[in-house]
Description:
The two termini are 36 Å apart. It is elongated and about 110 Å long. Helix 5 runs parallel beside helix 6. It is α/β, with parallel strands linked by helices and 722 residues long. A six-stranded mixed β-sheet has the order 10-11-12-8-13-14, sandwiched between helices. Strands 3-4-5 form a three-stranded antiparallel β-sheet. The longest helix is centred in the last third of the chain and has 31 residues, at 524-554.
Amino acid sequence: MEEIQSQSDNYRSSSSSASSPASRVPSSNFFYLRKPGSLRQPISFEDSPEWEDTDVDVRVEDGGDSIHVATTPASPSLSKINSGSLPSPPLPEGAVIARNIAGASVVWRDLTVTIKGKRKHTDKVVKSSNGYALPGTMTVIMGPAKSGKSTLLRAIAGRLPDSARMYGEVFVNGAKSRMPYGSYGFVERETTLIGSLTVREFLYYSALLQLPGFFCQKRSVVEDAIHAMSLSDYANKLIGGHCYMKGLPSGERRRVSIARELVMRPRIMFIDEPLYHLDSVSALLMMVTLKKLASTGCTLIFTIYQSSTEVFGLFDRICLLSNGNTLFFGETLACLQHFSNAGFPCPIMQSPSDHFLRAINTDFDRIIAMCKNWQDDHGDLSSVNMDTAVAIRTLEATYKSSADAAAVESMIVKLTEKGGPTLKSKGKASCGTRIAVLTWRSLLIMSREWKYYWLRLILCMLLTLCIGTVFSGLGHSLSSVVTRVAAIFAFVSFASLLSIAGVVAHIKEIKIYAGEKSNQHSGPLVFLLGQLLSSIPFLFLISISSSLVFYFLIGLQDEFSLLMYFVLNFFMCLLVNEGLMLVVASVWQDIFWSILTLVSIHVVMMLSAGYFRIRDALPGPLWTYPISYIAFHTYSIQGLLENEYLGTSFAVGVRTISGYEALQNTYNISRDSKSKWENLLVLFVMAAGYRILSFLLLQFCIGTGTTVRKIFQCKQGTSNTR
């Protein structure tokens, strides 16, 4: 305790000079201080209004769907707060605060979250947290990096990963129950948007995926979401831009991701880092927009790392975390008083959030170690001479014994002792509707985005022209058989290899699916069927255009049925390759590792396809079984050769030999005329098998944070710690 007291006195002496009235500089600017439960009023820098402090009391009436807000006396610790510490912008003139608010209250009590560590022990990420959020208010969870902010937010929303365990209770309108679908929205810190759609199109397709009913009924919902997030000026602009047009700025992109959840008209919104990667102007605009959203009755709970003074003034309540411990929960103004009571008053010219993080962020200890022998022009660096561990213990002990903690406990009892209206699910769109919407949306994206299939079409046409001109003029003699086999092998193998260029688009699609799956907007079956149906026209376009050019440049048999089989065979080959890319992209979810894996797989399959060495001569244990049998190149090339040479003959002197005999020492094919259809069936089964494997990966790996890359990184980190 003596150590704590000495450190507190030291910091108090270093910051009191900055916060004392004698050091204040008169200014013509106005600062705005909000009395709890009332509108902000302009006051001068020297004014310090006093009032009888109030707090919010919530009661739920039977048979109603509204929560009424009243004012009751609060703890005396909220009075006489230094007005110069909290500048913030005023609300618009004529603004009113609604007293009858249709919404939902959220309460968490003794909430503890443990996550399985690397060495088979559990780490407490959140420790016995208590708090609440009321309709029409913004509750912010603030703290330094790795303090448990996002984990607490996910625990309240019921979205913890499988590796985490939650202890404690969460109440919604006084009832211990999970929030049903449509009653809440959750916005991740990093969301993947579809750059080739406009804002209105993106939100409209999101509404079609989420809401039941007719299509025309959802346009008004989309327009309401656009208006709520102040996106009217950007509604018809592409999110990612096009050609020389720039896409939306980061602030507008963040608001689009929030608007996507607003189409469900949720009563509770959870937002992880709404100011992530935003500048000060965009951050202020975002928070003013969220404040306007809260005024409609929505309960807002979000995390934040740091904010400007203006943004801080818009918060209603703050939950301050450090290393999983709750250092304060209550009104934002009361947090300033709490720090002052603990011996850490906020300097007059410093942002409150900067001051809070300076006091509780243990990373500052490294700065102290670096600067302990330094001096600036005014003497010792007194602003960094505080031990953050001592500050954290002091703040935690002060809060536990304060009237603010008692007020939180009292409010939690009031909100939980009598249950309110139960939140009901708003229903989902049917599975058929979702498949149709995803198919149409994917078709629109693929037609606009050149990286999906247009680039692959250009590459395949260039490859076909190169191969066709190199192997042109072969004729139909016996000596042309070996060369024609080489041409078919090069066409199938290199066209499949070039198709790897589409893995970038697949990874982006999987990221979009992961976000939609986490919010229950989509599922693996819906995603795979929509992706398959939308890709078929483009794959068929690639296969028929490339096959026609190759077929006639090489001079294959001039028969329509044989040409159609060639097109169908190459189409199935591309379809199998699409499934393989989906599997690899689902496993890695990383462009570099996915491309590296696919190239390696294709090279191994090409080596065992029977061209460089016929299958009968391959070493049995590995290359014949199983590699040559799982290489789709084998069945595609074999089927094309059987399509071209079965039923043909070549004159050799006075005798003739069949096409099968001509290929006997070059490539293994079957004598059976039905064999080419069997090879086509094998390709179809392989395409279906890869899709089934993709379904399992999308179901059990995507959205859970489990990927091969993350597992590899985790093991590497564990070995390094040892």
